[in-house]
Fold this sequence. Notes:
Largest sheet: 5 strands, antiparallel
Distance between the termini: 55 Å
Number of helices: 6
CATH class of the domain at 16-170: Alpha Beta
Strand content: 5-15%
Structural class: alpha+beta
Order of helices and strands: HHHEEEEHEHH
Shape: rod-shaped
Radius of gyration: 40 Å
Amino acid sequence: MRFLDIRARMLLAALLPVTLVAVLLSSVFLAGRYADLDEAHQQRARSLARQLASASEYGLFSANTNSLQSIAAGALRESDVRSVLILDAQGQALAVAGWTGQVVLPALGAQEQQWVDAKTGHDLLVQPVSPSQLQLDDLFEVRGRAGEADAPPLGHVVMEVSRAGVVSRSQDMLAIGLAVTLGGLLFGSVLAVRIGRGVIRPILRVSRMIERIGAGELGVRGEVRPDDPLRDLQQGLNQMAEHLQQGRDELERRVTLATA
């Protein structure tokens, strides 16, 4: 395996932390935003289902199917509402709008239910329509509150809500997150290259000088720059080369004298 040279190692050391930080921050941001979008979507769906249940109370009480059908059809004006089904207390459909009947409904009760259909990927909500109770005086108020929780629902509102809006916004956020991440990586790469050049070039200059000295060019001297991070090392190499040259000249002089 071929080892990386010093330039590649310096770039890797500069880019790796920037990449890790950018990816980590983007992941945390996107995960948080995805959770916020999903929570907002679920809260909006529950709010719509409760509003439909409240509006359907009189129609269920009076068995006014025309009113219930108008309520169900009006709910489809919302961009993400796909279908609405209004059932009576026995589970019989009194109003249908956009319902395909492909979804199997669970056992209906007095509690609201919400789940994601595995086939369509839509949110399904079942909201019971509880009868309102008027409190006439303190005595009836106490009795009414005690029996309100036990009163059976007048019916149920079943609503199918699409998650296409959430998916679209999530994709937009993912694209923005990727763009920000790539922009951060590009900026970090340019910065790392510019900073790395200030360190790599002096090292390469010193390395070439050492190679020339090793090859016997003792007269070579390196330029000592004020902004050089290896300024002291460069001065030391110049002094070493000078001493080696002086030692070689002295040795050659003695050899010449001894030969004469």
